[in-house]
Amino acid sequence: xxxxxxxxxxxxxxxxxxxxxVCWSASAxxxxxxxxxxxxxxxxxxxxxxxxxxxxPDTRVSVYPWWDGPVGxxxxxxxxxxxAAQRPARWIWVYHWPPLGSPTSWTGRRHYGDxxxxxWIDRFQPDLVLTGHVHEPPFKPAGNWADRRGxxxxxxxxxxxxxxxxxxxxxxxxxxxxxxxxxxxxxxxLSAAAAPERSVLDR
Length: 203
Fold this sequence. Notes:
Elements: H1 2-8, E1 17-19, E2 22-27, E3 38-42, E4 59-63, H2 70-84, E5 90-94, H3 117-124, E6 128-130, E7 146-149, E8 152-155, E9 167-171, E10 176-181, E11 184-189
Parallel strand pairs: 4-5, 5-6, 6-8
Antiparallel strand pairs: 1-2, 2-3, 7-8, 9-10, 10-11
């Protein structure tokens, strides 16, 4: 905690996503052998005075695992259908990478994304889809950090060098989102029909 806060200049070392009492976060220790790609889940005392808790009422946050092959694909589709039947007022997905063909998957040379995700978004229409893995899209012409697909917003902050990562701040109460990077800041309203024109790229 101390080392991260000192290095970044932040009051916070990291954040946890709490679902049904279990705290989830990225963890290099829990990845596959030889890979730093793990996700760690554990129970943490959130009332110890060391945590600031932000509650999201009437919201389901679905964290979907990486899948490979028809068995994993079909199992994930079945889970989505089951959760859609119990959908609250707001539904947020956390997914490994963006849908194929979206500006949030554009590397500057090709689209690099999930070939099934677009159809799932069209079918279930979550409010927000938070993705990553593909580093380049926000920094490339024809790429973007945000994309509107039906009622769903798809976000990918991209990756940049330096101590402060490229990141997106979403204000659900204000109905807005903002992308921050070394290139500058871009903003959008969640009520907009599409992502606005890029303002930090030289066209």
